[in-house]
User: Fold this.
Amino acid sequence: MRDIPRQTTLRQWDQRYEQMQKAGVAQPSYGGLLSRHIEDGDTRLLKLRYDNSAAALRLWNFLLTEEDRLREARDRGKKIVGTMKDLGTVPVMAYSLDNVVAFYPDGAWWTPCVMELNAGLLSIADSLGIDESFCPVRAMLGAFVTGSRFPIPELLICSVGATCDDFSAIAQRLDGLGYPILWWEIPHRRTPEPGEESVKLPGGFSAPRCQVEFVKAELQRVRKALEEFAGQHLSEEKLSAGIKKANQVRRLLADLRRLVFGARLCPMPALEMLVAEMLAIHFCSDRDEAIAVLKELLDEVRERIKEGTGLLRDDAARIFWVNPVADLQVMNLLEDCGGRICGTEYMFTHALDEIPENLPAMEALAQMALADPMVGSLADRASRICTEIRRFDAEAVVISRIPGASHCALEGQVIGEIVQAELDVPVLEIEVPSLTDSIAQALRTRLEALVEAVRERRKK
Amino acid sequence: MKRIIYSCPYVPAEWIAAHGLQPSRIIPDPAASSAVRRPADCRKTGAGASPIGPVEGLCPYVRAFLNEAINDKRACGVVVTTVCDQMRRGFDVLTRQCNIASFLMNVPRTWQTFAAQKLYLDELGRLSLFLVRLGGNSPTPDALAEVMLQYDAARRSIRASRAYLSARQYAEAIAALGQEGPAQGRKSEMGRGVPLAIIGGPLTRGDFDIFDIVEQSGGKIVLDATETGERGMCGPFDRRRLHEDPLTELANAYFGGIQDASRRPNSELYRWLGHELAARAVRGIIFRRYVWCDTWHAELQRLKEWTDLSVLDIDVAGDTDTERRRWQNRIRAFLETLT
Ligand code: SF4
Ligand code: SF4
Assistant:
């Protein structure tokens, strides 16, 4: 049951859902009215606009039922591990074990937005001395203390080293509150010294061989901890199979990104694409279902492109977006202002790149972890952004600052300078807090000005 | 002698000195660095007199350090470490803004594994290559051992003089060792007052007034657990190991001996504090932190929960003059509650 692509409100989605039900469109076990999530407190959903495809509905329902999925997994006897900060590497290992489910408590980052601060997680963080000078990930502390957002994992594994200070400090606070953490070190990725053996990493960065070996040894520690936790041997075969599955997700996302960002008419809005990209990190706690959800989304996009249908104006300004937005509504806002997303760097491009399958598993995973754009220099990160801007033919860049984030104070300036020097495209830096309602007009004005600048440049 | 500047306590001065270069652990001056003009050898990336102006979210210490490094005409190299994310990003700015030779040293946050310790040691090896490129000489073990003995003696002498120095003089003696290397004959003068500890990140130049302010208000800092103070000074070397394998002993003393909030886990910092606070009969703690410093900020509440002592939180934005007046009042009130 396909329809002309458009964006709908939550209420319109409910009506459409009823029609789908009447038409006998099959729904997954976690399917249902999107509005039911409002009862869980996810009130921001009321203010968002959604793609009207059945594929998008499935995507949203999959995202919003993760907590139930985790609790069900625990009830079925699965063990739950909280992987923290590395965004994409340790879950590949964890999901290679058949009795372990992994998720990122870091995902509480979006709770203040989705629940419009109603959950009180930030006030709990405040009471623990972690105030608004930290990034929104501080909501994670409240989620642990209340146990209301996700089941408390039996094992916590956190990468540290070349990571942000916010997360490192908050995770240490958590550890101090009696949630012990297994720390593993990810060093700052550096340029190989002259004469030093160099390794080309997935995604194109390079690192010295000794750093790859170091990370491999660190991940070996993690592997041992996971084995003890699961009571299972995590063999090379299991890891290789886990990598293959993760690559299935990554390939689907690569196709999705290539088609959506490259299409003449936008076939899938920015918000759904953001959610889809997030699935790469830990498969939203169900790897096989994540693959099915992405396949359906990809099929929808292919159909739309084939039919020549899509959303937004066909002259929408092609925007490359850097950093995820703490308020999901800003993705809608960009489109309202005449823009569309053509390329993203949401700080986890390494989780989108395929993991080499022709290497021993631990070598491949170590390379992947080191390919994280956030563990290297800003120049590295900017160069990859430039490559992607060229690839998707983006006409302007938005760097969205995350309030309080330790990396945001200086990165915008450096990335902006490099991108401008190399590509001569307009760059806009904005700050996006968890709720933008009070600054929506100012944001709108700035985004509209950027779109206008793009249109002016087209005339030249 | 060619001067190498740095600020992180995990950079061993002995290693730089043993290469025949002058290590200088700078204590930046936020007021001076925000007024300086961009030097001729720095690439211009924008208009304005100050290389890095106040930036929302930027730790004032990072800003002061970067500006000092950018404008230090006597330095031939700068060493930055990865102990803090803001500094790590600051390094990227430094390399773009300025032509000074710069080196980013990976200092692991984890410390309990052999791999982390080895990584630190390997980084000292890489630092050596950098120093040699700047004209230093790779030292023999004996040469390194000799320099280590000099520094060790200087640190012992400073520690021994603690009882005879005012808190400010003691802090300045530690800072001077970092800036200028071992020296003799520092003047002594002892103060009295309610014993306090100061805990936190590094001090900037104007911040040393805090010791005077405490004394004028009836207290005395008996434990300087700031990064520029005793906490950032490595412990005594083991003489036998120093002669057998000086570089490993140097790495052990620095990486294994200096406790910091940034370590994961940072339980050893609390163990160290527990010991020192008790040994010095501390009665109150001044917790000094920079705004936007997540690493220390996150420890404030934990420290309050951990200790029975009163804790005074002083947040610093880098404007020393205005802040001094605020400190004065708050420290005076704090001491009144303790007496
Ligand atoms: S948004 Fe930035 S500061 Fe916050 S947890 Fe993520 S990487 Fe760290
Ligand atoms: S005070 Fe904090 S933010 Fe500033 S340099 Fe030190 S650790 Fe980094």
Q: What stands out?
A: The pocket of iron/sulfur cluster (ligand 2) is lined by residues B 59, 61-62, 84, 86-87, 201, 290, 293, 295-296 (CB under 6 Å). The domain at 189-338 of chain B is CATH 3.40.50.11900 (Rossmann fold). The mean pLDDT of chain B is 91. Chain B touches chain A through 45 residues (CB under 8 Å).
